[in-house]
């Protein structure tokens, strides 16, 4: 505790900031406190001791000599004595303390001779002549960065449009270490590290921080325990597992990523093998439609598992890592470089180390996090579906509101219908499409309502009521305010959600948080600003490096800042952060207060806004995230399969799942969306789900039939899979062609 108040013997500062100055350590036996970087970059000292000698291998007597040498040198920045670091440029006599050099934007190269360059002679990156000025996101912090090489902005040597903040790169390097620090865009390591070392990024020779985290890979050791049966019979839920009972969960013997309770499946005992529908469909494709001979557990145990386990890589590869978190400091390459027998740099590792380190846990970690995130979204969407079903109980099934919608003018006809005297959101809705001549189309199919809401949400996404690229915030449209269109938009979204339509899925996180938690509790970011000029103003204010530049920027934007009510006196450079927050708050929230209030009132229709505020995580999954892309697995779970007595259900299931797998793999002219349209009339699964639940029926018919009133696909019974596939392709293509015509 006392050491934090002791000054470093080289820079005479008490700062304890490992990210900027390296670890600060105090040695009471030597009456010595020192920053690691100050010691490492000092010009007149080398590591001449063993790893456990002195301080990081620097002998105590050598440190005393260096302190005495530096005491005679005046810092060219703070004008105080003790400047132990000198610029290595020829004929340059500037000396400075390490913290002073950082403040003056000097470059310190943590490689080879550990040279330092003053602000005048430091290496710079050059912008290629064919590359235009612009801006993009720093791929680490995702904030905007100007395409102009300077001390605080660095360019990737391997990717044309990859730019970074220096601080972001330095934090990334300290976290990843030499083994995993690489370009975040193309994953290049050697070229990227060499350039970053040249530009003064310290890449420590240590294991990555995630490798040092205790039990970081614990979840990889967990066995899948969830019942995926279409109808789970367990009262305690799908995750309940009681060994040696009918509620024990059995995993698929092929993939291990699906499970079922014994009581929810045809198997009679734990010793029987079970395959999930997806794995069984593989047998359908190969022409093997019969049940496989069930093998007992005792038989399956005869397989040589040990041999296979030896071939599998461990989730966490053994590494030649230092014993402690700071162990890498004791093996500084400054000592290795000076020894004539060792000409390699920091990056010249033994071949064996390179081989082991090439298996990056970043892939496993990112894949694991993505999988967990997808699972969380599915759970949240399932919760949202249940909430919307509760809201739908308000809908009166005995009364119907009919809307005549013109495809060529979806917005005007929707407005006319929603503003109609007889419109009631609590009535059942029917939608009929008309062409521009007001003739009712012949395809008055069950999916018209879904199609209407899909077209309506698409129109809203691209309308002047919202602004932004993919994630939208409310815009300021004075004409729309006069016509109360923001209220109507909120009302339409609420009605779409409750009546089985598609969600908007384009809300920004900021817009959603304003609805869920109130705008007073939300802090917008620069990504929420769609106006280019305003975004440029914010970027210029943020990138101001001196108070003079900041005041000049404010002067250039004086008129806008006055209108926004953000003009404030700037006394220090730190005031720019408050100014940026004021501008963001005005542009994203305060400026659109009136549209937001109208939009919020519209969302109160049928109690939707109240549920959003009560269950923000669930509704965020459908309002801020696009629907999950259809897959054979999703459709397989969606449809319940029914068979007539005497029909081989196993064979039918194999044919159906085999066809879904073929369509997903591109082996059919149809798509998974075509199959869903054929059965239900809509190309996506609405958040509330389908009513009634989609089903598949095998009947003695000649060709497949899509019954959209019942969300049912009626399928023929065929002898071979090829016959089944050909009939499915023909029926779906014919039905879709008739609708287009």
Automatic annotation (TrEMBL):
Pathway: Protein modification; protein ubiquitination
Key words, A-Z: Coiled coil, Metal-binding, Nucleus, Transferase, Ubl conjugation pathway, Zinc, Zinc-finger
PANTHER family: G2_M PHASE-SPECIFIC E3 UBIQUITIN-PROTEIN LIGASE (PTHR12420:SF37), PHD FINGER PROTEIN (PTHR12420)
Parts forming coiled coils: 374-401
Name this polypeptide is given: G2/M-phase specific E3 ubiquitin protein ligase
Annotated organism of origin: Terrapene triunguis
Residue span(s) of domain PHD-type: 5-122
GO molecular function per UniProt: ubiquitin-protein transferase activity; zinc ion binding
Database matches in SMART domains: HECTc, PHD
InterPro entries from the UniProt entry: EPHD, HECT_dom, Hect_E3_ubiquitin_ligase, PHD-type_Zinc_Finger, PHD_PHF7/G2E3-like, PHF7/G2E3_ePHD, Znf_FYVE_PHD, Znf_PHD
